[in-house]
Structures are given as C-alpha cells and as structure tokens.
Design brief:
single chain; elongated; 477 residues; disordered N terminus; mainly beta; eleven-stranded parallel sheet
C-alpha cells in the first residue's frame, strides 16, 4: 500500500467496425557512498521486483534509474554553503530590474553569456523579485556542472502581440547542455490567459495555431530539475526534447483545467528520463510521451485536473511513432478526462511496447484505462485507414479507484493491426452510481488475480461485440 496526498466526441462508423510542493528542501547531509548505494537499490527494486518473475519474458521491462553521485553533490553544494566555491552570476548585476514591468530579457542574455563560459558557476535568479522576460534561447555548450538557481519569479509578456516573432513556439529554451542542474523555489509563469482565449479550442472562430512552451530543455544530457514551479504556460509547460539522462523531482505544474493544449510535462525523442514526486494539474495531459522516447519512469505522480498520463498521440499524418520501455509506478489521478491512456491515429506506423502501469489509484476519472487507436484531435472527421501503430506488451497491475464513465477499461484497437499481449492483474475499478464494463475491439491478452470489471473480451480476439458498431473515431475537440 502507499499514500499520495493530492495538492470526445464520437462519430458514427463509415465502413469499419469497432468492438467492444512541493516540499522538497535541499538535503541537509550528503550521502556517503554506501548509503547512496542502498538508496539506489531501493529505487531500482520496484522495476525488477520479484513479482515480475510471474510475467512472460516479453513483459519484463528494465528502465535505467540511477543517480550520479558526483552530480548530485554538485547540485547540493550551492544550497549547503550558499556560494561555496562556485562563481555566482546574478541577473541583477547585469541590469535586471525585477519589478515585473521592465523588460529584463537582455539582462538574462548577458548573464547567460557570462555564466556559460565560467567553470563551477551558478546562474542566479534571486528570490523576492519578478522578472519580465521575452522569448530567449540559452544556448550551450557551456562549462559543465552549471547550476541554474531559480528562486525568484520569471514571467512572460501577457500580450501575444508583444511576443518575439522569431521564436513563436518557445519561451525559455535551454539547448545543448551537459551536466546542468535546475533547482530552486522559484516560479516560471507563462501568463497564458490571453493565449488560451485566442485558441481555436476555446473559440472555433479562432485560427488553430501553436503557442510557446514555457520551459524547454533540448538536445542535452545529464540534466537534473528539482523543486521549480511552472504555471499558466501559453501552451505546453515543460518539454524534454532529444535528451539523454534527465531526472525531474519535486516539480509542480499548474494551469486551469480548461486551458487548451497545456500539457504538463511532454517527453519527445528522449531516453533515460525519470519523473518523481511531481504534482501536475493542467488543461491537457499531465504527462505526454511521444515518438522516439524509451526508458521512461514515472514514480509518485499526482495528476489532476487534466487528461491523464498519455503515451501519444502517435502516427498523425501517416507518420511513424515509436515508444517503448515505460513504467508508471505509484500515481494518483483525480478528476481527469482520461487515466492511463495510449492514443494513436489511424494511418500511422511503428509501435508502442513494453509498458507497465502499476500501483495507480483513480478518483472520479473518465476512461481510467484506455487504448485508442482511433484518436482524432481534428475539427474534421478523420478518414478510416488500415495501417496503425502496433501496440503490444502492456501491463496493468494493481489499479484501483472510481470511474466517471461506464467503460472503465477500453481497448479500441485496429482490425488490421490488433493490440496484443495486454496483461491485467489485480484491477478494481468501480462507479459511484452504476456499473462498469470493459470494451474491446481487436485486443487480446490475459487476466490474472481479481479483475473488476471483467475483461473476458480480451481472452478471445475473434469475438465481436455488436455494441461496438456505434463507434469508430474518437476526438477531443
């Protein structure tokens, strides 16, 4: 047992059928090597636990989950001894005003030029001030072991017309860094309300166009992010793109539940990523994982409101999508429009495989468990296509809670590329007012332990549920 404390329309078928804080203060003591080793063993054990011996070999999932002892010591030195032996580059010393009105963009740019070339340095955004910063790219390579200490508040311009037109999709973008540590009790605030009002998802008369991501870490390695709050992003809050070895802990992400396309943490083209002890509530996916991502672990995640924890969407515009080796271990999802979701478009290719969800609690969640190979986030009806992203080796273990909808488990898979090797073990999903059921189409797998609702439809991929003829395309618009 564990405890976590919380901080579509459908179109009729055409020619195919479907079946059925954040309080993470700096450590006060640095672990010695033996203690550190024990700590790592405790972290890794859940991934290769003894219960996994009961799974077929194809279901065994290994996800890298280690700390770099020297790197962690680096991040703690600044907090423990204030400046210590590190060179502190304070944005105030480069002309930043910090009144929330004056444009401090150039001061941040100049401070970055200085800190990037200095060994053992700290880029400091001091507490007690509000810094107005426009779209900025913080480019590397920089001297290694750089600490980015955000203790104050960084805000974006609240008028889309004042945005830097050269950078329409980014706000704070960090590129090509190695061994960098983001930390602090500060806030990154995207001032997104005017961007949301201009979204086509808010008003269909508005043009559909992209908006900036609040924080992007791109093409970087050995990255640690700890304790920062990201809120009210113009669109996605935090994107990890083309990165290797990233650990995010104690981060809070928040925006209103009706803010459009405001994914909390979005992972793309990245490997060896760990998200732990994070509180996320947004208007879109709390966490989304898309093409080219593998070895991803999420642990102790609090999600809600939002659209749940999603793999995808993948395969849009007949593209190839590949995601594998993903673990969600200990999560609490509440008041979300989806729970544990895998979503792909018709016409795509590639695969999603070796995914494990375990120790997840749901409260008032629509679609607690859903695989949807007919995803269509489009203002027009998506055309039926035979190709699809292949989905296999998906484990759901120890999932419990309440569903807001009748179909607590839904496996809506392609007739031509069925979902295979779905394993359900100890599932208990109820509905406060009514019964729940499992919906299957072209999905097969196995069931063990107590599973509620019954998932007999998984045991034979040849049986067709006549009720499924009502459905073909699923859309979020």
């Amino acid at each position: 047992m564990y405890t976590i404390t919380p901080s579509c329309h459908l179109h009729k078928p055409t020619n195919r059928t479907l079946k059925k804080k954040r309080q993470t203060p700096p450590l006060k003591k640095i672990m010695n090597k033996s203690a550190f080793l024990c700590f790592i063993i405790v972290l890794v054990l859940p991934i290769v636990s003894s219960t996994e011996k009961d799974y077929p070999d194809s279901f065994r999932i290994e996800v890298q989950d280690e700390e770099d002892d020297d790197f962690e010591v680096l991040g703690l030195l600044y907090s423990e001894s204030e400046h210590g032996n590190k060179v502190t580059v304070n944005v105030d010393e480069f002309g930043a005003v910090g009144d929330g009105v004056s444009d401090d963009t150039q001061a941040f740019v100049n401070a970055w030029k200085q800190v990037c070339t200095s060994k053992n340095s700290v880029f400091l955004v001091p507490e007690g001030r509000v810094y107005l910063v426009n779209a900025t790219r913080f480019k590397g390579p920089c001297a290694e072991k750089l600490v980015i200490q955000i203790d104050g508040t960084i805000v974006a311009p609240d008028d889309p017309k004042k945005w830097d037109t050269k950078n329409p999709r980014i706000w704070l973008d960090f590129y090509n860094l190695t061994k960098v540590y983001f930390q602090g009790d500060g806030i990154i605030d995207g001032s997104g309300s005017n961007w949301w009002a201009a979204s086509c998802k808010k008003n269909k008369a508005n043009p559909c166009k992209g908006a900036p991501t609040a924080l992007t870490i791109d093409a970087s390695s050995a990255v640690r992010v700890k304790g920062i709050t990201i809120r009210n992003s113009q669109q996605m809050h935090f994107v990890i793109s083309r990165c290797e070895s990233v650990r995010v802990s104690g981060v809070e992400v928040s925006s209103p539940g009706d803010s459009p396309n405001t994914d909390g943490i979005h992972i793309t083209g990245s490997t060896n990523v760990v998200l732990e002890n994070c509180n996320i509530g947004t208007g879109d996916d709390c966490i989304s994982i898309v093409n080219g991502s593998s070895n991803i672990k999420m642990k102790n995640i609090n999600c809600g409101p939002g659209h749940g924890i999603s793999i995808g969407s993948l395969g849009k515009n007949n593209s190839t999508g590949i995601v594998e080796k993903v673990v969600v271990d200990k999560a609490f999802l509440h008041d979300t429009t989806n729970g544990l979701r895998i979503k792909t478009w018709q016409g795509g290719s590639g695969y999603v495989r070796s995914i494990r969800y375990q120790n997840v609690r749901m409260d008032n969640v629509s679609n607690p468990i859903i695989i949807d190979q007919f995803y269509c986030d489009s203002p027009t009806t998506c055309q039926n296509q035979t190709s699809a992203v292949e989905i296999s080796q998906i484990v759901y273990r120890d999932i419990s809670g309440t569903s807001r909808t009748k179909e607590a488990m839904k496996f809506a898979c392609s007739d031509s590329v069925p979902c295979t090797k779905i394993l359900l073990n100890n599932i208990n999903l109820q509905r406060k007012n009514g019964t729940v059921e499992t919906f299957c189409n072209s999905a097969s797998g196995s069931v063990s332990g107590n599973v509620q609702p019954s998932a007999d439809c998984l045991l034979s991929s040849d049986k067709e549920d006549e009720r499924s003829r009502e459905y073909i395309v699923h859309t979020e618009l």
